[in-house]
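Worked example 3. Consider a protein that binds acetyl coenzyme *A.
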Amino acid sequence: MANQVKVNTGNGEFEYPVLSGSVGPDVIDIRKLYGQTGMFTYDPGFTSTASCESALTYIDGDEGVLLHRGYPIGQLAEQSSFMEVSYLLLNGELPNKSELDNFTRTISRHTMVHEQLTSFYKGFRRDAHPMAIMCGVVGALSAFYHDSTDISDPVQRRIASHRLIAKMPTIAAMAYKYSVGQPFIYPDNKLSYTGNFLKMTFGVPAEEYEVIPAVESAMDKIFILHADHEQNASTSTVRLAGSSGANPFACIAAGIACLWGPAHGGANEAALNMLKEIGTPDKIQHYIERAKDKNDPFRLMGFGHRVYKNYDPRATVMQQTVREVFDALKVNDPLFETALRLEEIALNDPYFIEKKLFPNVDFYSGIILSAIGFPTDMFTVLFALARTVGWVAQWNEMISDPGQKIGRPRQLYTGPTQRDYVGIDKR
Ligand code: ACO
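Given these inputs, the predicted complex is written out as structure tokens:
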């Protein structure tokens, strides 16, 4: 018999089952709470609420652990590839050689976008933020790929998933090309998923583009680090949008909109801008004091996390990758020294120690992306590109769950109670 939790409301005592996952905290199943007690639970920001059952990703924020289908992120980043991790997230197991080859081939066959889609870009201002373009263009995919929008058909769901993963690099690179006024570069399916993205972004028709293996490998690692992160804000947005039966292209566009915010995917852009503002290590203490001042809205961007109360394991890999990219490109960015020093000072400051604020994945990613040549406003786009596989895998998991219901939170209403309308002449 499962454990039970007793709730005494004053109107009686009710028992609720306690459910256990394979690892992680137990959850109290309160689905019958309202029916039995007439009460809701109150949990703004969902800090204590499990919104779904999932077998994709596990995080232990206190220990700094992140597992995809059981595999630690550090091992995947060091030994796997983004295509392999994508297969793992979608299918539950690592592929064998022929499964991986087939999957990679299938994805590469979907990299082109409908030619008519290029007209969408021309409707945007050249100085539009590329995330604004991404929200619009990805949402528009549902107008082009009707044959994969029937969510009750598992084959159509699979095709839509492959299309989204395959087309996202093309769409992201086109957003970049449009902003710099260069022609769009068609996908080159001889290249890897990541090599192809680099070519579509940095290649020009006038010259041969050569993929630098160390940059390709660093970029692939960055994609792996961003592939999924359990029920974060944008993933929950995708699930909530999808719970009404909306098509997958619309759901991923909703996820992109949520990811754009500076408290989520926009943090890598904000973190690099902050490092630029700080500039040299001698200014760090001033900014640390500002971050601690409750009357100052300034926060250390790239620091702190809702779930990690320990070092974000992705930040560890990211920090090492900075050096790899610098070596490969023979560059050095003094902001890296500033970042390292800032981390050291913050990690020894009682405020950050007490609140368990550690660098998150975004703290170092901006430095790498900027060294590779991406402008800051592309950073969140790269995050969206990589997270698409996580969104799609989570969306598939939800749609295939027979117990799936439309997401519909309740509220604690504090507005006026019923009152009579008063005509404008009497107000
Ligand atoms: N700098 C200074 N103080 C901070 C920071 C920070 N970066 N982050 C949290 N705090 C403080 C808060 O002021 C709060 O203090 P209080 O308890 O005295 O009020 C305490 O630490 C707890 O912070 P909350 O905001 O309540 O924690 P929450 O879990 O809601 O927020 C968040 C997490 C949004 C990530 C927050 O740490 C933050 O804004 N960080 C900077 C933005 C950032 O890097 N976001 C990227 C997240 S990772 C990702 O999306 C991939």
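Take a moment to read the result before moving on. DSSP finds 18 helices and six strands in the chain. The mean pLDDT is 95.
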